[in-house]
Each structure stands twice: as C-alpha cells, then as structure tokens.
Amino acid sequence: MSSEKFWKKSWDPGLKDLDPKDWDGTYPDMIRGIFEEFPNQLALEFLGIEITYKQLDEMTNQFANMLIANGFEVGDIVGINLPNTPQYVISWLGTLKAGCVVSGVSPLLSADQIKYQINDLGQSGKKVGLITLDAIFAGHLVGGGIANQLPQLKLVIATNVADFLSKIKQVLAKALNKVPKGKVTPLAGKTVLQFKDILKNYPTTAPNVKFTPDNLAYVQYTGGTTGPPKGAMLTHRNVNADAKIMEYWLGWQESRGKGCACSGFPFFHIAGLFFCINCVAFGWSQLLIPNPRDTDHILKVMQKYNPTVLVNVPSLYFLLLKNPKFKELDHSNLDYCVSAAAPFPAEAAADLESIVGQGKLIELYGMTETSPLTTGNPSKGKKKLGSIGLPLLNVDLKLVNPETGEEVPIGEPGEICVKGPMIMQGYLNKPEETKNAIDKDGYMHTGDVAVFDKEGYLRIVDRTKDMIIVSGFKVFSSKLEDTLAKHPAIGMSAAIGVPDPAKPGSEIVNLYIQLDPAYSYDGNEEAVKESIIAFAKEKCSPYEVPKVIHIKDELPLTTVGKVDKKVLRK
Questions:
Q1: Which of 3, 6, 16, 451 is the most buried (most CB within 10 A)?
Q2: Which residue range(s) make up the domain with 427?
Q3: Do 484 and 445 share a structural domain?
Q4: pTM for this one?
Q5: What's the number of domains the chain is made of?
Q6: If we measure between CA atoms, which residue out of 306, 232, 307, 226 comes closest to residue 263?
Q7: CATH number at residue 379
Q8: Based on the domain organization, do 103 and 200 belong to the same domain?
Q9: How far is Cα 493 from Cα 106, in angstroms, rounded to an integer?
Q10: Do 315 and 214 belong together in one domain?
C-alpha cells in the first residue's frame, strides 16, 4: 500500500514530491537571503518591543561569536532553558550559526530533570552550554545543588524575562515582582555570563564556520513509555526538508517577507521550534507569547498586528474561544489556524471556524523524531476535521499490525510507520532504543494507531497506551509511575488520563494507588494524597503532577500481573 502512495490523488492540484536538492544546505545557508532582502522587516515583537531582521541577524552573530570565543566548536551543544522571549530566538539561531547543536530545555523541568538532560547531552564528550533564566540559575543550579554535578557544562548564560524591555518597564516589572528573578553568582569550573553583556561585547559580523547539512542541528528530548527521556538527533537536512515540504504543502512560497504569525507553542517543544524555524525561513514577523494563558495579551497583539497565521495546541484555541474579545476581532487577514500536538474535537473546530472563517483550520500530525510533521490536511482541498490529514510530500507511510509487522487493509487500524527525509538519525546515547524505533527498512514506528480511509486521510483511533495528553504536553504514565514509586506510601500505582471538562481535547492525570503495607499513617487519606502531590511537584514537571488521587485496597491486575488500566479507564 505504501509503495502506491494512493493518497496522492487527494493532494492539492500541482503538488508533487520535491527534489532532495531543495534542502541540500545548512539552515543558516537557507535563510541568509532573508536578512539581505528584508533588513527592515519586523522579525520579533515581544511585549511592545520590536526587533527587525537586521537587528536579529547582528544579535545572532554576536551570540555565535561569543560561543566561538569561549571554545565552542562544531557539534558542541547549547541547552536553551527559556520561555518564548527574544533571547530564545537569538540563542537558537546564534547556536546554529556557530555550527553548534540546539537542545530545548523546558523551564518547567525540576532540578533533577535538568541535571539528567545536561549530563545526557555531555556523555559523548561534547562541551555543553546552557542559557537560562536568572531565577532558574539561582533556584535550580545553585539552590538545587546541581551545578557541581554537571561536569560537561562549561558555559552558563543567565538572562531575565525583562531584559529586552525598556529600562522603566524593567524597573517596574522587577519592583512589582511581575517577573521571576534570581541572583547570578560564579560557578566553580564554569564560565558564567550575562546575556545582555553578549550584545555589548561581541562583534556583529557573521562567523566563518564550516559545517554540512548532515551535521546535527538539534537534540530535542521526548518522553518514552518506559525509561528516561530520549534525545532525538535531527540534522540540518532533516529539519530543512520538513520546512520545505510544509512551505509547498501550505502554499507559502509567495508569502516571503509578508506573513505575520502568532503562536503559543513553547520553543522548547518541537512544534514551537518548527514554527520559529519556518517564520525566519519565510521572513515573517513573529509575535512572541511568553504566557499562552494570557489570552487578553494575545488578543491585544492580534488586534495590532493582524496575523496571517495562528499556530496553537487545541487547548489554547479553546481558551481564545472562551474570551469574548476573540469574536470581536477582524479575522479577515487570517489565512490559517494551524493545530497540532493533540486531537481537535469536531464541535470545537466548528465553533472556531464560525468565528475565523470556514476552511481555515488545518490539523497536522507529527512527533519529535520526525522533525516533526508527516501528515496534514490540505491547505486548499478537502479538510476532514478530526483527521490528521494525508501523508505529506516525500513521505512514505504505512499502517502495520504491531504484532506481525504486516500492512493492514484500508479501513483497518494499524500502527503508523513513516519514512522520509525528516526521520531522525536516532536517539542520543541510546542505540537499542533507536533500533526499536526505526526498523531495518528505515520506517519510524510511532506507536500511534490510525485508520486510512479510501481517499488517504488518516484518523487516529488509539495511541500509545501509557500516553496522557495534558494541554498538548505528553505525559507518559510509566515514567510518572516510576518516579512516584519512590514515595514511601506507594506500593503500586497506575496513572491514566481522563477527559478534562474544562479543556475539550485535553486530559487530566488520575493516579490510582495501592498503599505500601509497610507504610504507617494515622488513617488520614487526604494527608497522604497531599504528601504525594507535594512529592510529585518536586520531582516532576507541573503538567505531570496528578490532579486526582484514588487510594484503593487493591488495583485490578491482568493475567500476567500488570495493573489492568483498561478496567481503571472503565
């Protein structure tokens, strides 16, 4: 079936697989012309501050030159531990210009989780740098005591969310505790810099660094059904290919230097990163959203800049729909509302299109390991709401029986397996995990189960059993259970996702536990639950923390002794 690519008949007219020469270059090569053509075009807007492409080019050159001056070479790695601020974009592109590798580090991670990722990045002997908020510097690196447990971390750059604001706004924001802040101090054996000093002390000329499209550009971390997070290794060629494919898929070739996009996806997430990659590649203006839950701010910048594209997880669209000001905006300039990372309920999709215009919602599908996109609804042709669309250009896709590996007939469920130029090189330091994910024929096994219809549209009918989607973030219950098992009260546990009534398409984490027989307590179950939640907040990301805990005398078991989550879900 996959060899026939029968879905091509449903592509928009004129689309065809692209020549691989289209992405035969590094990302800095691909975007060099943008800075030359549109120096005065707005590149970034952040809380009223505007940065042009000329300024962005110069500041990213300064960041690259700083890395080189501090001994960073091609292949060394920079973790970016920031929300969506100008510093993130500057650090990201400056790192790539230096031939180094970007790794998004969520600001939501605990100190232990940051330590794991930095040390995993440094296992190969590469130097590692980290740019982080001063509050995280003080709270996790110093306060959490991990700084001296990171041997490969050679360079730390601290910044504050308010650093790009005017002096008056900076003083007011910090005085009113509007932004988190922390003290930056020396760290033994590491160079510590302030981000704002980089923009004063390093040259704005482009660095002369030689590297190829097959050099790594990103190591983006993704959870797993078992074990710790894995770093997906993506080359310049991988991500450039996916960007070019989406350019043609969505018909954005004519929008060069004209578009304006607004997204609440965090840049440390592959979806937010890919959004940023495309905006700069097209010379678009990006409206940076530091707090995606602040819909009043989002609507304020939308009203001022009239974006042509919105890119969000479904739960953020739901928040916008709840704000009455969203309906009052003029959406005539808006071409598309792109959605990914979680299913978009059909009823909510209809509500959105009744406001922004029919046919403007485009649902896409992908994963970190595929750079990320592999399927999507057409931009001009038939869109099937609730489906993940058609396989994209240059993508080979098949649905297989997970037990036999045989392709399933149209209309039958099977695991999505994809092949194409966007497939990762593997997981960093995890050859066995790589072997389990990518088969001998080069197909990435996604773990998601879908059904093909006769026109080639795919609909997800199941997903990896242990995965819970919380506002677009993936929570892997096995990993969560392993972490919480260290709490003395827990003898056996099972985490499942249940629909969040406040956020259609999102879930909340429900934890079922059986108390450890050796655990002694006074019978106050609420105190036990509070203790477990406090433990989870310390060891896990906020979206992983259980919202509901059920204490049971016994948990249902399968015939082989595993907790039967099907029974719990019922």
A1: 451
A2: 1-11+362-464
A3: no
A4: 0.85
A5: 3
A6: 307
A7: 2.30.38.10
A8: yes
A9: 26
A10: yes
Beta bridge partners of 548: 510
* Residue 29: both structure tokens together: 């090569």
The pLDDT score that the predictor gives to residue 53 is 98
Q: What is the DSSP code string of 214-260?
A: TSEEEEEEE--SSSS-EEEEEEHHHHHHHHHHHHHHTT-GGGTTT-E
From CA 532, how far away is CA 529, in angstroms rounded?
5
CA 447, 484, 496, 386 torsion: positive or negative? negative
Q: How many CB atoms lie within 10 A of CB 367?
A: 22
**In a shared domain, residues 179 and 312:** yes
Do 389 and 349 belong together in one domain? no
Query: Is there a single domain that holds both residue 488 and residue 535?
Result: yes
Rounded CA-CA distance 229/482 in Å is: 13
* pLDDT given for residue 467 in this prediction: 73
Among candidates 4, 1, 7, 6, which has minimal Cα distance to 375? 7
Looking at residue 174, its pLDDT comes to 63
Q: What is the CATH number of the domain that holds 515?
A: 3.30.300.30
The amino acid at 275: F
Last residue of a domain, one of 331, 354, 377: 354
Same domain, 415 and 268: no
- Domain ends where: 417, 434, 464? 464
pLDDT of residue 242: 98
184 and 292 part of one domain:
yes
Radius of gyration from C-alpha coordinates of the chain: 23
Q: Which residue type sits at 26?
A: T
Can you tell me the distance from the alpha carbon of 202 to that of 198, in angstroms, rounded to the nearest whole number? 6
Q: Cα separations (Å) of 301 from 114, 289, 320?
A: 33, 9, 13
Long-range contacts of 183-188 (CB under 8 A, 24+ apart): 183/134, 183/138, 184/134, 184/137, 184/138, 184/158, 185/138, 185/142, 187/141, 187/142, 187/147, 187/156, 188/147, 188/148
- 371 touches 346 (CB < 8 A): no
- How far is Cα 455 from Cα 470, in angstroms, rounded to an integer? 31
Predicted local distance difference test score (pLDDT) of residue 171: 64
